[in-house]
Amino acid sequence: MGLLQRFKNFVYQLMVRYQVILYLIPVLQLFTKHFADTKKRANHRITDRSGKSLRACKFNGKLFPAFGLERLRTIPNISIRRDDVMLCGYPKTGSHWVHEILHMLVNGKSELSKHGKGLGGMIDVMPDIIIDSLSSPRVLNSHFVYEDLPKGVREHRTKIVLTVRNPKDTVVSFYNHVRNLEEFYTYTGEFKDYFELWIEGNVDYGSYFDFYLSWDELLKNQERHPVLLVKYEDIKAQPMENIKRIAQFLEVDVTDKFVAEIVEKTSFDSMKSKRAKATAAKLFRKGKVGDWRNWLSEEQSEAVDKEWRTKMFGCTLYQPHYE
Questions:
Q1: What DSSP assignment string belongs to 279-308?
Q2: Residue ranges of the Sulfotransferase domain (predicted)?
Q3: Which residues contact 99 (CB under 8 A, 6 or more apart)?
Q4: Which of 4, 115, 202, 228 matches a 20 to 30 Å C-alpha distance to 211?
Q5: Mean pLDDT lowest for which of 40-44, 172-176, 282-286, 288-292?
Q6: How far apart are CA 200 and CA 255, in angstroms?
Q7: 79-111 per-residue burial string, b: 16 or more CB within 10 A, e: under 16
Q8: Three-state secondary structure call for residue 98
Q9: What is residue 224's DSSP assignment?
Q10: Peptide bond preceding 137 in cis form (omega within 30 of 0)
Q11: Do 42 and 57 form a contact (C-beta atoms < 8 A)?
């Protein structure tokens, strides 16, 4: 190793140890608009049947948001600590919500995280220096399938919490996510056209159905890796019971009082209010179960049901619950 490289490593370790980059986050957020410009980081465009397109990255035959090939190539080598918790799930299945629950459980405080799940551990996009600067215990999060997660996750058998939500509400939320982040995606298409892309799996992170199929065998074999499936609809219906279930999986002792505080602090209104001035505010829409009825036509609804029957036959991890 050359002298220059050793000096670079020394500076990097110094910045990580003293969390220098975390103190600079308020300044860096002033340049959010600049970072949202994905023109240089995208290497692919997904085009709907009306000719409207969105920017993306195509890497190893898979579609991802336009985070840049350089970042995607480094994911396998991210440094994982033994006390990390990994949050996974297809986009728009409750990851922001569950991230805050996990943050409170592992830290023993009913306080929302300072920066949310993005700057707070989103490995898909955040540079290593931010991830490495986070204090332990960390709640890292990703929308990657198990095989594409950092090698250290498998080596340490890092506990994984996997979120899932019914596919009809998921596609509605995903569409609104893409439209609300127009500076990032540059997509101006209508729902009917985006739906066709989504049902075909021609969106960032690919097919919802393929994503969960890839986790099914792992969930059936807990000896291979500890994974807890957390259902969006279940937490909505019974938050106390499900937070206790997560705590048990994480081997965290909790009281009813503490869990009740978590329920209150992680309510949709509380979180949306907390993030009102942040970029993440655009990611909080309604947080409801059943909004798909205001969006999907009968034909689209049946298309989702058909895809489930066809692709998810024999899948035991989850059966959609619709209101």
A1: GGGGG-S---SSGGGGT--HHHHHHHHHHH
A2: 83-313
A3: 87, 113, 116, 117, 120, 121, 139, 141
A4: 115
A5: 282-286
A6: 45
A7: ebeeebbbbbbbbbbbbbbbbbbbbbbbeeebe
A8: helix
A9: T
A10: yes
A11: yes
